[in-house]
Amino acid sequence: MKYGARNQLVGKVVEVKRGAMMCQVRLDIPAGSKMSSVMTIDSLNDLGIKEGDTVKVIVKAVNVLLIRE
């Protein structure tokens, strides 16, 4: 799948905080930096993301999208 966003990094999921409908996924990215993404629980389940996974981090404007490949 192609993405228009050019800012693509690889990150490791270090924590998933679940709420009733939304969750926050915290990531370690290269150079010791950290990022996080907020998504619905349905999206988290559809992607199958869990702690310890490696994901692609796509940054477009104010959105941070996680892609599991």
Short description:
This protein has 69 residues and is mostly beta strands.
Explain how this protein is built.
The protein is mainly β. It has a single domain (7-67), classed as Beta Barrel (OB fold (Dihydrolipoamide Acetyltransferase, E2P)), CATH 2.40.50.100. Helix content is 10%, strand content 58%. It has one helix and five strands; from the N terminus they run E-E-E-H-E-E. It has one helix at 41-47, and strands spanning 7-18, 22-29, 33-40, 54-60, 63-67. Strands 3-2-1-4-5 form a five-stranded antiparallel beta sheet. Strand 4 and strand 5 (63-67) form a beta hairpin.
Produce the secondary structure layout:
Elements (H helix, E strand, L loop, with lengths): L6 E12 L3 E8 L3 E8 H7 L6 E7 L2 E5 L2
Antiparallel strand pairs: 1-2, 1-4, 2-3, 4-5
